[in-house]
Design brief:
This is Beta-xylanase. Belongs to the glycosyl hydrolase 10 (cellulase F) family. Its EC number is 3.2.1.8. This protein has an eight-stranded parallel barrel, surrounded by six helices. Helices cover about 35% and strands about 15% of the residues. It has ten helices and nine strands. The chain has about 300 residues and is of the alpha/beta class. β5, α7 and β6 form a beta-alpha-beta unit. About 50% of the residues are buried. Bound molecules: (3S,4R)-3-hydroxy-2-oxopiperidin-4-yl beta-D-xylopyranoside. The site of (3S,4R)-3-hydroxy-2-oxopiperidin-4-yl beta-D-xylopyranoside has 6 residues, from loops.
């Protein structure tokens, strides 16, 4: 096959990208997006600050733009992200305790209900663990509503959209030996053992150089999968688009039956949140980079 999405499909996987609604009018951008990818994640448009700018006033216009771009092309959508410490609307600032908890659960319910039946998988909770080397939960306003806020969010999402796969998504969970990876693993194992509805784990995989792709990445993927969840690589980008690290990442996913897809975090380097690191598969002029070829041949 001659595109990322078609190659992945030959292996029963998808290959996706993050999309920004404001860039869809750029024809180079939308042409590449529509040609190469068969999964789309809205980069910012489904986040709490965008979808509920004032409490109980839901705004879906930007998200719907992306969803219709996708659905008109037969491209599926990963929803991102229902509950997260970042990109919260200002009105949550003074909230805490059950007031904040209920606002968060209402948000999860409303947004997942609005998009019911149209989302392949939701990042229900994003980045809830700390980088402290001890596997702690991240201290956040949501965490301070009680340690069970994550499972409460998953239960609300399941009720709202029973057919979407529900994922826990995080970064720095790539190296199997890291305390953060182990902490997420233990949470997922606990959720599975207690019947908390979780279907997948998302590894963002923002690699900061060829060397930050860990040699035990495949072990991480297969260990999560062995818990009975799908594994998705959700926000892949690699400093200077190291071609070897890209190919290794893709091969590791393909080696694990339940690693069902890969998403890169943007189309061209100029679209990237890390644009100064040129971490994507297309350059700022829309040309395929060597990492593109290494991914395509790894697929
Ligand atoms: C980033 C977007 O790419 C930026 O446009 C935005 O300014 C900040 O958020 N982890 C995530 C993503 O889960 O939502 C983040 O996206 C990148 C890190």
């Amino acid at each position: 096959a001659s595109t990322l999405g078609a190659s992945a499909a030959e292996h029963g996987r998808y290959f996706g990208t993050a999309i920004a609604a404001g860039r869809l009018s750029n024809s180079q951008y939308s042409t590449i997006a529509g040609r190469e990818f068969n999964m789309i994640t809205p980069e910012n448009e489904m986040k709490w600050d965008t979808t509920e700018p004032s409490q109980n006033n839901f705004q879906y216009g930007n998200a719907e733009q992306i969803v219709s771009f996708a659905s008109s092309r037969g491209i599926r959508v990963r929803g991102h992200a229902l509950a997260w410490h970042a990109q919260q609307p200002g009105w949550t600032n003074g909230m805490s305790g059950s007031t904040l908890r209920n606002a968060m659960l209402n948000h999860v319910t409303q947004v997942a209900t609005h998009f019911r039946g149209r989302i392949y998988s939701w990042d229900v909770v994003n980045e809830a663990f700390a980088d402290d080397g001890r596997g702690s939960r991240r201290d956040s306003n949501l965490q301070r509503t009680g340690n069970d806020w994550i499972e409460a969010a998953f239960r609300a999402a399941r009720s709202a959209d029973p057919n979407a796969k529900l994922c826990y998504n995080d970064y720095n969970t790539d190296n199997w030996n890291d305390a953060k990876t182990q902490a997420v693993y233990n949470m997922v194992r606990d959720f599975k053992s207690r019947g908390v509805p979780i279907d997948c784990v998302g590894l963002q995989s923002h690699f900061t150089g060829g060397s930050s792709y860990p040699s035990n990445y495949r072990t991480t993927l297969s260990s999560f999968a062995a818990l009975g969840v799908d594994v998705q690589i959700t926000e892949l980008d690699i400093t200077n688009a190291n071609a070897t690290a890209y190919a290794n990442t893709v091969r590791d996913c393909y080696a694990v039956a339940r690693c069902n897809g890969i998403t890169v975090w943007g189309v061209r380097d100029s679209d990237s949140w890390r644009s100064n690191e040129s971490p994507l598969l297309f350059d700022g002029n829309g040309n395929k980079k060597s990492a593109y070829n290494s991914v395509l041949s790894a697929l």
